[in-house]
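Q: How would the structure tokens look for this protein?
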Amino acid sequence: MNEERLASLIAVAIILLVSFPVHEFSHALAAYRLGDGTAKLFGRLTLNPIVHFDPIGGLMLIFSALVGGIGFGWAKPTPVNPMNLRGGRESEAIVAFAGPASNLVLATAAALPLRFIIHSSTLAVEVPDVAIRVLYLFMLINLALAIFNLIPIPPLDGSKVLYSFLPPRVAWQWRPILDQYGFFLLILLIIPIGPGGAILSQIFEVFLDPLQSLLLGI
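A: Here is the predicted structure in token form.
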């Protein structure tokens, strides 16, 4: 097994054991603090990766690493009852944003040692290449998860953030339609269209590179 494949597998393992549980726990904790105990009732107010593991989403992520790439996977969605939340639509947006925000925090945590390594002319200890690549992939995947989840299309977290900014009447009219057809809209994002490729790839080009450069100082 080459170093690149090994680094991908290690990074994916950390995503499954850390990033996914932290993301879902953040949703659960925000909801609990705002008055909804549904996630706690279902045993999801925890960092235990087992209770957040989704077999299909997790295996897809593992498979992508085995074939030499880093694809998308997902954890088991955290149950939230918006009717229990104090503060209405704004609280629902806070709960939704908590997940992607946790990925941004994790990406920053990985970027700090990377930034130090990149900008240090001399290091007391030589850092193995595989460790550097694991840190980089962990940062990159968490940034990608944050950006992807903030796309305002159901069932992604960004849709609930969008609803909170729309006028109540507009949100009431469009939410059922978007919730019904959101899955098909997501498929359209993935399908390559025209010379620019898939819309999702273009979204990543717009946001991922600038965020990566900002965190690494390059």
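The mean pLDDT is 91.

The CA atoms of residues 54 and 75 lie 5 Å apart.

Upvote if useful.
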